[in-house]
Design goal:
By secondary structure, this protein is mostly helical. The chain is 78% helix and 0% strand.
Amino acid sequence: MQDKKAKKENLISVFLLKYELLHVAGNPYVHIFGVGLPVLLAMLITKVALSDLPGEQWQPMATTSIYLGMGTLIPMAVLLMGYAVSYAQELSRGIPERLQLFGINKTALFCNRALLQFLFLLLAFAVFFLSGCLCYKLQRPTLYGLFAYVLCMAAFSMICLALGHGIACVCRSFGKTYCVSIMLYFAFMILGGMMGISYQDLPKWVQSAAKLLPVTYINRDFYKIWTGETYNYIPMLQSYLFLGAVSGILLFLALRGNAGIGLRSRMHGSDSTFPCL
């Protein structure tokens, strides 16, 4: 009983949080793509959009819609790309296995890593929307619209975390992980209509692929939810279920595959390959 209580108490530790904080602070991809790029793109696209509007009465609607859509870039950059690349580097160097030698189990390492990543997400979202409020007029949300946006971003962030973790476990190297994650990052941006091409301008077969991604609905339709208008949630929910299922299957296969490799390596007396959390 005491051992179980001790494990629960050590699940979140100050030491591991500081360790993960150093990783996040020293990861340039997180700061450039997760904070700088969303703020820069949102400002540029908003400025271009406002110049084409006939009157000022449409400005709050346009700026709010742009900022709500561009907010999806933050979890994609921080978790899908930045976290995946950082963790792949750790796997290639055997850092998680070395930490186990000092009594730091994989579950505690993952919990502290996930907690700090989500804390950084909150900070990044605060900087992002603060810059929008200071530079442009954003529409105030209804209480329900704000809750829905937070819930959708939290669910999308968990999907990005699972997808990034699975990619890192499969690739297990910086180059391969960076290549796959950056391709998915820009593919999500293009299909979601955040690269200057709207959903309506895409070919029909590309639209079919875009319907499978939550970023498409957040970028295109979330202003209606933000302001309390009626909205059909079924297509958006289906996209979350689809992408979540793909991420979960990839993560499950990656963990099972790496666990099998680690077991076979230990049976042959080699410790060069370890199971991946």
